[in-house]
């Protein structure tokens, strides 16, 4: 299987704080990989480096064999990496379908005044973009909300829209940052089904997630960080039985669930 993402001995320092220390792991094409660990373990920092928000202090990140860690993010996105944000980056004053069109625009370079005129159905090309956006909304079960302002959506629907917007860029690799945070049980199961369907559509997925039921049920492989270091890597089954992971993270998570 082809390696899509290769993280090689990445260290990130913020002044005296070592957020990541010599972390290495890889993601193969078609996999769902989970990056887990306690608060402050360095998960978001790793995501930010993979999406080129800032560069690592040391080490390399390769995507499809190409070194990307020193590229600006506007050059990384067109290579096929897209992400969602924990604090949601949807445009609240746009409608649901317009948000998806913004995602498509990143790929098609259809200009944004085009997005507005396309709503009026002006050209065939624009009509096609609109229909594709509707297909994406259907895929994410958001089609009935297509003309609603994003500001009127519940948190659960906003998380779906954030996911749909990132998917609309047609990435090879999709980074999902705590996509299930704040969701109830049924919304979390819907999210987990969607993540699997997105993988089936040919997208490789890397998730940062605290919901262990979700992570254990969807991931092929887990990479565990603690205090900036990788302390384990393996299948969900291997990780659940790993003493170091239980001591650093899973033990505390289980206690939290019991309380
Ligand atoms: N911009 C920054 N400047 C200084 N320190 C930072 C910065 N970003 C992160 N850190 C520090 O790096 C460490 C790792 O943080 P990071 O946010 O990557 O952890 P995390 O695993 O994502 O945590 P959480 O689960 O709480 O989101 C922490 O000690 C954090 O305080």
Uncertain runs with pLDDT below 50, 5 residues or more? none
Distance between termini? 42 Å
Strand order of the largest sheet: 6-7-8-3-9-10
Strand content: 15-25%
Largest sheet properties: 6 strands, mixed
CATH superfamily of one domain: P-loop containing nucleotide triphosphate hydrolases
Radius of gyration: 19 Å
Number of helices, counting only DSSP H or I runs of 4 residues or more: 10
CATH topology of one domain: Rossmann fold
Which range best describes the helical content: under 10%, 10-25%, 25-40%, 40-55%, 55-70% or over 70%? 40-55%
**CATH class of one domain, anyone?**
Alpha Beta
Ligands bound, unique: adenosine-5'-triphosphate
How is the quaternary structure best described?
A: single chain
Number of strands: 10
Q: Which structural class is indicated by helix and strand composition?
A: alpha/beta
Name of the CATH architecture of one domain:
3-Layer(aba) Sandwich
Keywords: ATP-binding, Nucleotide-binding, Transport
GO molecular function: ATP binding
Organism: Sporosarcina ureae
Protein name: High-affinity branched-chain amino acid ABC transporter ATP-binding protein LivG
